[in-house]
From TrEMBL:
CC annotations in GO: cytoplasm; nucleus
EDS1 EP domain ranges (all copies): 342-544
Native species: Solanum commersonii (Commerson's wild potato)
KW Manganese (keyword) present: no
Lineage: Eukaryota, Viridiplantae, Streptophyta, Embryophyta, Tracheophyta
Subcellular location: Cytoplasm; Nucleus
A molecular function GO annotation: carboxylic ester hydrolase activity
Annotated ranges, domain Fungal lipase-type: 76-194
Protein name: Senescence-associated carboxylesterase 101-like
């Protein structure tokens, strides 16, 4: 019981398919389509009804089709009619697919384009195929998955591997895509393994740049049992071992019949694959792996390669565990981030009368032990938040365009609050170091720039156009950096050379226009007008210089007439 339960997880995808009649229904459509005349068509496609509102789309390639190891790169596909540029991601911009499969797909492109539209409201939607027809079924499924409203399930029988590691990794980046594929493979069918091993006559000598890689879930079957695997490297290792022990080493493109295989699958226990295991001891892990290998008649053969294979699969499992444990999951740390933000919000509230949030943090080292202790606590939470959001930005940057947009929309509000709350603290620390200037261009972290860019893309016209009350958090998280630069340039205006005074004058004019725009749109917090704030200190220190050198500055009129007293 314990060993069986180890291989049972919340995702019962394989068990559901095997215990239902879905595999049998899929194979029935393939068997039926095989009886149709091919005429001069290299591949046939037909839609079969399934349940009340569902459909099974079957693909069968002609026996005259030949399997070749040659691939076509994504760059070459860009100039063709094949619509697969969307597969590329920022992390995996390049991929290659089997040339024979893409050629067959292209021959059906017009028919499949019309079929794609017809399948809009079909559910459940099953795409199936055998041999090279299975490869075309996988390509059609990928094309359907491009649209968020379609969730097909692809079931292939004896299909050769479709593409390289770039394709496999790009698909794996979208978990919902990877879980849409189930590949049924018999240990007596040489076609699925034909592009793996150089010893196989179909593959020939495969260059390292043309290695095929699996994706999706594999249901590997022997005469007496079967087992599911999903971890790509484990699938390769096991299929390589199946290759070495296969009696089918001739060069015929066999049309393997999976009907008998499916009959044997009924009422069998399906052990979940390596990437779906729970955490358990090393002995349990090895026992579970042995059970899986034995199920597909690899363990029982006791070949000379058996121990290395077990070692390889065990290593793949452990690597998969480590990868999943180390994967960034923003939801898991959300409560901790809320707690850290709550600390900063508390600090902002209690320091309002001490010159405001920014200046209290900046001057706390000179305000006694309690102030220093509070600052240390805030710095701790500041570091936690910054680490979290830097990781978040890095992960989102790796996502495909569609997933990136969805993810950004979901988290952008929290990200904007973080930036407006935390970046002023970074600015304070930056200008506390003697000689530091121009934070925006020389000191600003890239993750702040990216979060601000996403905010502008999400709201290009800006916010606050109809606001009648000031914000609690200044919208421009770099506001205090501009104040610090105004202080530096006001000093140059007073003491600098002629050239420095000219540059300072231009800078202060721009600063004045910037601040007035923020005030008129109520986009700046009223805390900037607290008596001890850096902004008020700037005005009080350099008031006469500004009034003398910049008499027409609108900000000077505003401050001199104390209009800020009514700002709220």
């Amino acid at each position: 019981m314990s060993q069986v339960s180890m291989f049972s997880s919340g995702q019962e995808f394989a068990n559901l398919l095997v215990s239902s009649d879905l595999l049998h229904h899929s194979w029935f459509t393939i068997s039926d389509l095989r009886n149709h005349p091919y005429l001069n068509n290299p591949i046939l496609v037909k839609v079969y009804p399934y349940h009340s509102n569902g459909a099974i789309v079957a693909f069968v390639s002609s026996p005259t089709c030949t399997l070749q190891k040659e691939m076509v790169s994504s760059e070459d596909l860009e100039g063709s009619q094949s619509p697969f540029d969307f597969i590329s991601t920022k992390r995996n911009p390049h991929f290659s697919v089997n040339k024979a499969a893409i050629t067959l797909f292209a021959s059906l492109l017009n028919e499949l384009s019309a079929l794609k539209e017809q399948l809009d409201n079909v559910s459940p939607l099953i795409i199936t195929g055998v041999s090279l027809g299975g490869s075309v079924a996988s390509l059609f499924t990928l094309w359907l998955l491009k649209d968020n409203n379609k969730r097909p399930t692809c079931i292939t029988f004896g299909s050769p591997l479709l593409g390289d590691s770039g394709l496999q990794q790009a698909i794996s980046e979208r978990p919902s895509w990877n879980s849409s594929f189930l590949h049924v493979v018999s240990n007596h069918d040489p076609i699925p393994r034909s592009l793996i091993s150089p010893t196989n006559v179909f593959a020939g000598s495969i260059p390292q740049s043309c290695i095929y890689n699996p994706f999706g879930m594999f249901l590997l079957c022997s005469d007496s049992d079967c087992s599911c695997f999903e971890e790509p490297e484990s699938v390769l290792d096991i299929m390589m071992e199946m290759n070495l022990n296969s009696q089918h080493q001739d060069n015929r493109f066999l049309a393997f019949d999976y009907e008998q295989v499916l009959e044997r699958l009924k009422d069998r226990v399906i052990f979940k694959g390596a990437s779906q295991l729970f955490y358990f001891s090393v002995d349990q892990l090895q026992a579970g792996i042995d059970l899986q290998l034995e199920a597909i008649r690899i363990g029982g053969q006791q070949t000379s390669n058996m121990n290395p294979l077990r070692t390889k699969v065990k290593k793949r499992v452990e690597e998969s565990f480590a990868k999943k444990r180390n994967a960034f999951d923003p939801g898991k740390k959300l409560n901790k981030m809320k707690e850290a933000m709550a600390w900063l919000e508390w600090y902002k509230k209690v320091t309002l009368k001490e010159g405001g949030y920014y200046d209290s943090f900046k001057r706390s080292e000179y305000r006694g032990r309690d102030a220093v202790k509070s600052r240390q606590e805030i710095v701790k939470h500041q570091r936690v938040l910054t680490k979290y959001w830097k990781t978040m930005v890095a992960e989102v940057e790796k996502m495909p365009q569609r997933e990136e947009t969805t993810f950004r929309t979901r988290w952008l509000y929290a990200a904007t609050n973080y930036r407006r709350m935390v970046e002023p603290l970074d600015i304070a620390e930056y200008y506390m170091k003697s000689g530091n200037i121009d934070y925006v261009n020389l000191g600003r972290s890239e993750h702040y720039k990216k979060l601000e860019e996403w905010r502008k893309e999400d709201n290009p016209s800006g916010s606050g156009n109809y606001r009648r009350k000031s914000v609690s958090l200044t919208e421009d998280s770099c506001f205090w950096a501009y104040v610090e630069e105004a202080i530096i340039n006001s000093k140059r205006l007073r003491e600098g050379s002629l050239e420095e005074k000219e540059n300072a004058t231009e800078h202060l004019v721009n600063f004045g226009e910037y601040v007035m725009k923020m005030i008129w749109s109520y986009s700046v917090s009223s805390e900037i007008f607290q008596p001890q704030s850096s902004f008020m200190n700037w005005w009080q220190e350099y008031r006469q210089d500004i009034l003398s050198c910049l008499p027409n500055l609108r900000l000077a009129f505003y401050m001199e007439n104390r209009e800020y007293q009514s700002y709220a």
